[in-house]
Model the fold of this input.
Amino acid sequence: MPSYDYPFNERIRTLLRVEDLFAKVLHNVAAGHEHHHHCALLTLLQVLDIVDRSELKSELLQELDRQKHAMNLLIGNPAIVADALHATLNDIELAANALRVETTKLGQSLRANEWLMSIKQRAGIPGGVCEFDLPSYHYWLGLGEERRSRDFDTWLQPLIPMHHAIIIILRILRGSGATTPLVATGGAYQKMLSGSKPAQMLKIEVADDITCFPEVSANKYAINIRFNTLDCTQKPQKYDGDVHFSLTLCNL
Done:
C-alpha cells in the first residue's frame, strides 16, 4: 500500500530527508557493484550536507530525552502494552547513549577526510566525478567490493547512532496518530485543523490499485489534498474521480 508522508515543519523535513538518503546509502552499499558504491558515496555526501546545515545531534538528544520522560509516565498504565513500552524505552536509551559517546560534531570525521572532501567538491558539478577529473576516485572504485565495503564501514560508523535515533523518533511519530478512512470527492479533500497541539506530519495511504497520487498543501490551520495523475509526458493532471484513502495526523 503506497504511503506518503508530509511534514509540517523544517525539523521533521530534515529527519525525513536523512531517513530517505540513509536508506539509499545502505541499499547501495549492500548491493556491492562499483556503480552502486558510486551512488552510495554521492548520497552519503548529501547526508553530510544536511547534517552540516542543522544542529541535528542536539535536537535528536532533546527529542529522545523528551520521549523517554513521556513514556516513563506511562509505565503501569493498563492500556499500554508493557513489553512494547519497555522495548521502546530501551531503544531510546541505547540511541541516546550512542549519540552522547561521540563528542565531535556529526560527520566531523568525514569532513576531516581531505580525499572525500575533494570528491564532494566535484560532485556538485554535472559529470564532475569523471575519470579524468578524479583519477584517484576511479582507482578506488576499481579496488574491489571488499575494500570499498570496509571503507564504507569506517565512514558510516560515526553516523549510525544518528540514523538509529532518527528511525526511533520517526517510528514514534508515525505511530502517534489515529488513522481515519476518508474519501476525496472529485480528487480533492480539505480539512480544517484545530486543537492546542498542532500536527507535525500527516501520513496518507492509498490502495495499490489507485492510479493517482496526492499532492498536499498544509499548515497548522488547514490541510488541502489534491489527487493527480501522471503519464510522464506532461505536468501532473487533476484526478476527477473519488479517491478512497486513509489519513493519519501525527504528533510527537
Strands lie at 3-7, 179-184, 188-192, 201-206, 213-218, 222-229, 237-238, 243-250. The chain has nine helices and eight strands. The longest strand covers residues 222-229. The chain has two domains: 9-171, 177-250.
